[in-house]
Amino acid sequence: MAQQNHHTEYIITQQAYDNAYSSLPEQGTDNQIAQSTKVVAKQYRLNVSNTVHAGKWSMWAISEESFEFTWQNGAWQPPQNLVVLK
Which residues are CB-neighbours of 42 under 8 A, at least 6 positions away? Predict the structure, then answer.
């Protein structure tokens, strides 16, 4: 399962996002959490060390990840650290 923190971002294609979204239940209740099916994602991590590379993003891995979506305002909302390529 994908990490939910400010130091990690996941980049997926629009097709992968559509696959993940379609795996969720059709409806939910306020603040309900649902786990998506696994899709291929590029994982980037922010270097927070005290080195010359501090503050830079670097690709950490390419792997299959599932994401936690939250039901809000009548729709499933993706995690904040999920980036979809258009």
Answer: 10, 11, 12, 59, 61, 62
Half-sphere exposure of residue 49, counting CA atoms within 13 Å on the CB side?
Answer: 7
Check pLDDT > 90 for residue 48: no
Per-chain mean pLDDT for the chain = 93
In this prediction, residue 50 carries a pLDDT of 81
Report the 3 state secondary structure along the chain. CCCCCCCEEEEEEHHHHHHHHHCCCCCCCCCCEEECCCEEEEEEEECCCCCCCCCCEEEEEEEEECCEEEEECCEEECCCCEEEEC
